[in-house]
Structure prediction request, 318 residues.
Amino acid sequence: MTPIIAISGLTKTYASGFQALKKVDLEIQKGEIFALLGPNGAGKTTLINIVCGIVTPSSGTVVADGHDIVRDYRSARFKIGLVPQELTTDAFETVRATVTFSRGLFRRAPDPAHIEKVLRELSLWDKRETRIMNLSGGMKRRVMIAKALSHEPEILFLDEPTAGVDVELRRDMWALVRQLRESGVTIILTTHYIDEAEEMADRIGIISKGELIVVEEKAKLMQKLGKRQLTLNLQEPMAALPPALAGWPLALTANGNQLQYTFDAHAAPAPGAAPQDIPSLLHRLGELQIGFKDLSTSQSSLEEIFVSLVSDRGGTPA
Prediction:
């Protein structure tokens, strides 16, 4: 299947000498939701701005739905809608006027019915004749999304779209994202709310210091890199782990009242090593007469995986 976005060998070095992107290769399929995660300054916005034609790459190629973003800029940009981080729009225009004007910038024929549909989906129809300057921050964010959707793009970039907005708007926006994906629109988003990426994305990309260090389907990423944790609530607190449990990945927490065992459910034991699975641990605890009242298990979240990967690269999560 031909990807709707194909990025090859993409680099960006600014005049100051700062290298924002280092040979990024990425393919995004039509109709998927792709989440790009990374610390501040990792290169997320630079990557988006290059694909959208706002920043010129130093080297490499980007093809959007078959159109090279440099050689065939107009056709490529026509396919793309962008919701930037900054709220940049004419404060004195009305909602409907500014969204209609955005459609005209892409040489789309007037279509009041489409504009009405977009405004209604974003709960902006009742504010259609309100000037932008009189809207709340959340409503202004909705207008930015409406502008990006005004020309019916096939690819939609959302750069930190829910930063600083209320819970209700976040819920409405993600419902809209799902509707757009169902209609065939490809969504690429950056977000600091990792729970959103975990809930919404089909695939995850993690970028750090200008390098794309991981690109993986969300479920596979969590299966490959996610750790499981068994927590035992002890009958009696322990001051320290007994020497007989040395070598097990165990930790005492809650003032010695809990014993935590972190493990990889998919890892095979090393040749010749004693098994370190849950049944073996419980059997060993029984031999040592260490009793527990109950137990629970959990799996590491996408946020923990993200923090671990970025920390390994020397980055600081935002």
